């Protein structure tokens, strides 16, 4: 069984989108991050099923390390 990194982003409407950089064109939406992830798992299964039916290769996962980092995005304004 292969493992694919999944990115979950907050949409402007407050929902969430999920996708994998390893599987272009396969996305899913949900009202919560968990729902988006569940929907993405089903979308990925259906996407791969379609690729198999069309005798197309299933992309191998290439994203090996997923990490989160924190940085200060803006410099604070100086106090005058």
Describe this structure in words.
The chain is α+β, with helices and mostly antiparallel strands. 26% of the residues lie in helices and 15% in strands. It is built from one helix and three strands. It has one helix at residues 33-53; strands at residues 7-10, 16-19, 27-30. The protein has a three-stranded antiparallel β-sheet with strand order 1-2-3. It is elongated and about 65 Å long. The chain starts with 6 loop residues before the first strand and ends in a 27-residue tail after the last helix. The mean pLDDT is 89.
Helices and strands in order:
Layout: E1 7-10, E2 16-19, E3 27-30, H1 33-53
Antiparallel strand pairs: 1-2, 2-3
Give a brief outline of the structure:
By secondary structure, the protein is an alpha+beta fold. 26% of the residues lie in helices and 15% in strands. The protein has one helix at residues 33-53, and strands at residues 7-10, 16-19, 27-30.
**What class, by secondary structure content?**
alpha+beta
Q: Please report the distance between the alpha carbons of the first and last residues.
A: 59 Å
- Which percent range describes the beta-strand content? 15-25%
Q: Round the Cα radius of gyration to an integer and report it.
A: 17 Å
Helix share bin: 25-40%
Q: Mind summarizing the main beta sheet?
A: 3 strands, antiparallel
Low-confidence stretches: none
Order of helices and strands: EEEH
Widest sheet: strand ordering: 1-2-3
Overall mean confidence score, pLDDT? 89
Shape: elongated
Counting DSSP H or I runs of 4 or more residues, the number of helices is 1
Number of strands: 3
